[in-house]
Amino acid sequence: MDLEKITNFRELGGYRNKNEQMVKKGLLYRSGQLFDLDREQKYFIAKTVGIRHVIDMRGADEREQFPDTILPGILYTTLDILKDATTNDASLGQMITEQGDVQGNMLATYEQLALSDSAQAGYHAFIENLLKAPEPTVFHCFAGKDRTGVGAAIILKLLEVPDQTIMEDYLLTNQERKTANQTILADLKKRGVPETQLQTIAVALKVDSAYLERYFQVIDTKFGSFDQYVREGLQLTADHVDRFQGLYLQG
Question: Is the pLDDT confidence value at 216 over 60?
Answer without folding.
Answer: yes
